[in-house]
Amino acid sequence: MSFDLSMDSFEENFETGSGRVELTVGTQAAVDFMGESTEGNLHLVDDPTRAGVVNVFGLHSLEDIINVPVTKLAAATQKVLDILSVPDSYPAGDPERAIYCSRTLNLRSIKAIGYDMDYTLIHYSVEAWEGRAYEYGLDSLREQGLPVEGLKFDADLVIRGLIMDKELGNLIKVDRFGLVKRAMHGTRMLSWSEIRELYGREVVNLRNEGRWVFLNTLFSVSEAVMYMQLVDRLDEGKFVSSGSAVSYQQLYGLVAKALYRTHVEGKLKSEIIQAPEKYVELDPEMAQTLMDQRDSGKQLLLITNSDYQYTARMMSYAYDRFLPAGMTWRNLFDMVIVQARKPDFFNYNMSLYEVVTDDGLMRPVLAATKGGLFAGGSARMVEKALGVEGDDILYVGDHIYTDAALAKINFRWRTALIIRELEKEVEAMAIGKPHRLQLKELMLKKELGQARAPVQGRASQGAASTGGGGAHPN
Prior knowledge:
Blueprint: E1 14-16, E2 19-21, H1 62-67, H2 70-83, E3 112-115, E4 123-124, H3 126-143, E5 163-165, E6 170-174, E7 180-185, E8 188-189, H4 192-199, E9 212-214, H5 221-235, E10 240-241, E11 244-245, H6 248-264, H7 267-274, E12 280-281, H8 284-295, E13 299-303, H9 308-319, E14 335-338, E15 352-355, E16 362-365, E17 373-376, H10 379-386, E18 393-397, H11 400-411, E19 414-417, H12 423-431, H13 433-468
Parallel strand pairs: 3-13, 3-18, 13-14, 14-17, 18-19
Antiparallel strand pairs: 1-2, 4-12, 5-6, 5-9, 6-7, 7-8, 10-11, 15-16, 15-17
């Protein structure tokens, strides 16, 4: 089969085995010329007013588009981005605020974007939030007569992604195969020989929850800091219970229970509601980002484990001030679900309630509806209400297991993880990029020099032997 691609003979409509192909206006096509969905496209140019005329970046013909110099096209593209107020790209912009992909993500195919709230849409000061939780936990342990005097919260002691070993009182870092690479007993770093003696080639199995505790979220920081500090005091012999020594397992139970009471009794959240300015880090670009996503045709969801009163107070404080007059945070979302009880939200079909009053009064309902405010329910109910499923949805959160893993495993949702801890590292890499390029250039010159030296040596030897074999003068 052959095609004549000249404009005079090209047929716009033709039949295929899958049906009839007809020419359509580009902005109305369901897919582009590469077969990718056009849903959510930004239409930056008007439809051509007459056949054969293209007006993109000042280019008026197909030949112009093909032959335009890359530098001119790049300059024209940047001019459009400037008009749209899109900041400069990495590394000239803010690389620590960028989005990084571990696999291909076509945002045009995403029909709905869901968000967690705490440490995702609402950014807390870790020092303030976790520090206060730590203090409440210490108060609880102090009431039980435990030796906690003099302890202070140290946010730099632990980081998300580490694992607590409740059996040995250690904090460990493993590689992707589950082998221990670094470890700390209490607050003391262990040597490589100590790590090898304790763990050898043991593979850490996180399914053994009786021994291992994975730090999934920033809410785990206060618990881990307190536990590692108290391991030191346990080793000093300061813990005695009913005349017998307390084990590392029992110590973890005391710490976990103390911090659990802090969250369940609502002491900390009540304090935050009264003075959110002490704990919440405002970001005006967040509100604009959500509005941009709505304008591009995405359905937005808020799915949080927090209760309605706390959610309404935090979202109102962090977003309403940055929204247009007459608009509130509720107008940003096509559906809001509080008290979602994740991870069960992604595992089971639970009872669903509609929040019907500003003070949180609820009534049971059978199904979720678009535009509603609900408590409980399940991911399956969300899909049904919005008419989306699987990889139509992108879910963004901070919890490594609940937000990133379960949504992907159980429902095939695309997932994005907020990792604040990497911001400084990404920024440092961006700052050091020119230096790394300079080192790479110098290393290349060195390698070329080393490769050239033997060649020059052989050439010199050849010249010498040729000179030595020449005719002698008379």
